[in-house]
Amino acid sequence: MINIGNRTLINSKDIFSKAIEQKYAIGAFNINNLELVQSVVEAAEESKSPVIVQVSPSGKKYIKNNYLIKLIEAALESTTIPLVLHLDHGDSLEVCKECIDLGFSSVMIDGSSLDFKKNIEITRQVVDYAHTKGVVVEAELGKLSGIEDEISVENHEGIYTDPQKAVEFITRTGCDSLAVAIGTSHGAYKFKQEPKLDFERLKNIKEMVGNNYPLVLHGASNVLEESIKMNNNFGGKIEKAQGVPDFMIKEAINMGVVKINVDTDTRLAFSGAVRQYLNQNPTEFDPRKYLGVARDTVKELVKNKIKLFGSENKS
Known about the structure:
By secondary structure, the chain is of the alpha/beta class. The chain contains twelve helices and 13 strands. The strands form three sheets. Strands 3-4-5-6-7-10-12-13 form an eight-stranded parallel barrel, surrounded by nine helices. Strands 9-8-11 form a three-stranded mixed β-sheet, with no helix packed on it. Strand 3 (26-30), helix 2 and strand 4 form a beta-alpha-beta unit. Helix 7 packs parallel to helix 8 (199-209), helix 9 (225-232) runs parallel beside helix 11 (264-280) and helix 11 packs antiparallel against helix 12 (287-309). The radius of gyration is 19 Å and the shape is globular.
């Protein structure tokens, strides 16, 4: 795993155990550039919260491996908080192995598009390799609808996690945490009607897998109204977007979710801040100005997420 001086990345086992015991969740924030890394790490440092910095395969391709690793090394130098580097939605054994060998401390293998048997098979292969390196593995059972990065599932294909299959899946794969499908979705358009999550299903899953097993919630961005307005008031066109309300996030945490993924909210905040700044300062063309404003905007959003998740002062 990546280390710099006396600082090293951690895997998520210890911070998840503490989160389960004290009923809070750890935020996992997607990054793909310098400003987002700084936003997330500085917000976590100021909030005294553990944090998971995660990158998707397409995000990793954009930022490039050597730049990503140096940014994470810089983050380790500049913070005292527990820091996890996680692969989000790894789509093959090969990309998971590559990230483990690069020094990631956690990887997700997403075999949710495969049938149950093949999902178990590929997840087991990743677990076998990762555990020899001290790296933990997140897997997914069930499908989330919506679109984000290269993850795309049509609404009619979206299926919820079967609690009984979840137990079998965890037992046969040895995965360290499980992303469950209970009605959230990727992207900014999560619900066509009133937001609704299947909390009874989540309760059953938790009872079946046990209180000490970490569950993960993907597609959990709020899609904040102020971010939508900031984009739309300054040239954007984001219509009928809807996310997961705060009270549902809190309920999921109370029922045992310990990792919550955030990507859409940071994208909306970042792009909205850039749109607003350039609109209000039409003669400005210094990227440091508008990217700096975007960085600060995302930083405040991440601090608010940390408060919502309950991980403030838990580092």
